[in-house]
Specification:
383 residues; 37% helix; 10 helices; Rossmann fold; 2 domains; 26% strand
Length: 383
């Protein structure tokens, strides 16, 4: 069974030219539709879905330039190869046509052999573009499936003596941020968040590997109750020379609920923020961070632990730098100090509205619809 004939739309107000073009194209085996002006042509284009359009420049109601502009602006028609017929031969006219999306020009009166050659060339380009679009759609579906898989790995909110809520907003469908929290035993809770350099699939794969490795606790000889031991083992396992030059930052903490004590260590990661105090006016903020290089940069990097006591009704925020490195419309970057101030000044409001308030505020700062970097945020409330 042969393929259906290729569809071509002719938009031409001159009846004689319309008949000549139609006859020639049909003799070549194409399925041809015709329109007598630009308004009718746009309507036919949407109905007929041609692979190629031959359109006169000067027409009543809507000229060829505007037809071309609207065709190229329509997502369903943007790949159509557009040939503009014109009696104008100047360079300025060609530039104007190209600026409006025309793919090819033919000067009237049209030489039929030249038209046949341009049509064949245009259809070849259209087929290549369609194949690329098909591959793009397949890739997008696969990326969406991969993104759903990554989201399925992330933990659900934690409820109990410690309450944890989290948000994950990749700048693309896939990102390099990852986090987890789970009880090592009834008294000890592990919390961590990591940020792999770069974006997309290349950053997502290492982050998934780290998550699975930590969750399975399959690193021999590692004391998962000691954050610096965990970071040292990760640094040995994920040197960037063996990971396509990928490195990552991480904050890792273990909370002992019996002693109300948090032990933590970090590798090139932003500080976690511990907020205490009963009202917005008396909030105290501690920045919890240890100094070291990111994981994977140097094999002999040293990692240390720090400890802090957790007061009743304290809140811990762990996050990636995408939460505060926001380019604002005035060109200034909204930074960590401003993020700390947001959390401190609005502690009561965040307690009521949750992380949606924080993300809503941050998205309102950006000049873009999408974020420039991956964004992850954990909010840990201690009873």
């Amino acid at each position: 069974m042969s393929d259906a004939p290729t569809r071509i739309l002719v938009i031409e107000d001159d009846r004689t030219a319309q008949l000549v073009l139609t006859k020639m194209l049909e003799e070549q085996g194409y399925d041809v539709a015709v329109a007598s002006d630009g308004v009718e042509g746009l309507k036919k284009a949407k109905q007929f879905q041609p692979a190629l359009i031959i359109c006169d420049w000067i027409m009543p109601r809507l000229d060829g330039l505007e037809v071309c502009r609207q065709v190229k602006a329509d997502p369903e028609l943007s790949t159509v190869f557009f040939i503009l017929l014109t009696a104008r031969g100047g360079v300025e006219d060609r530039i104007q046509g190209l600026d409006n999306g025309a793919d090819e020009f033919l000067t009237k009166p049209v030489e039929m052999s030249e038209l046949r050659a341009r049509v064949k060339a245009g259809l070849r380009l259209n087929r290549v573009y369609q194949a690329l679009q098909d591959q793009k759609r397949i890739l997008e579906v696969e990326l969406m499936e991969a993104a759903e898989y990554v989201r399925s790995l992330l933990p659900s909110p934690l409820r109990g003596t410690v309450n944890i809520d989290a948000r994950f907003v990749p700048s693309r469908q896939l990102g390099g941020d990852c986090f987890d929290y789970y009880w090592l035993d009834p008294d000890y809770l592990a919390i961590y968040l990591l940020d792999v350099s770069g974006h997309g699939l290349g950053a997502a794969l290492p982050s998934i590997s780290v998550l699975n490795l930590l969750r399975s606790q399959s690193m021999d000889g590692v004391n998962f109750y000691q954050p610096n031991h965990v970071l040292r083992a990760l640094n040995e396992a994920f040197q960037m020379d063996d990971q396509n030059d990928k490195y990552f930052t991480i904050w890792y903490g273990v909370y002992n609920q019996a002693k109300r004590q948090l032990v933590y260590s970090s590798a090139g990661h932003p500080p976690a923020l511990l907020l205490a105090g009963e009202t917005d006016e008396d909030v105290q903020v501690k920045r919890l961070k240890t100094v070291s290089l990111p994981i994977g940069m140097m094999p002999d990097t040293k990692f240390v632990n720090q400890r802090c006591d957790i007061e009743a009704a304290s809140t811990l925020y762990v996050f990636s730098d995408g939460i505060y490195e926001i380019m604002q419309p005035d060109g200034e970057v909204w930074g960590l100090d401003q993020f700390v101030d947001l959390l401190a000044r609005n502690r009561t409001k965040i307690g009521i509205q949750g992380l949606d308030y924080v993300l809503g505020y941050i998205k309102s700062l950006s000049r873009n619809d999408s974020l420039d970097d991956d964004l992850s945020l954990l909010m840990v409330n201690f009873d």
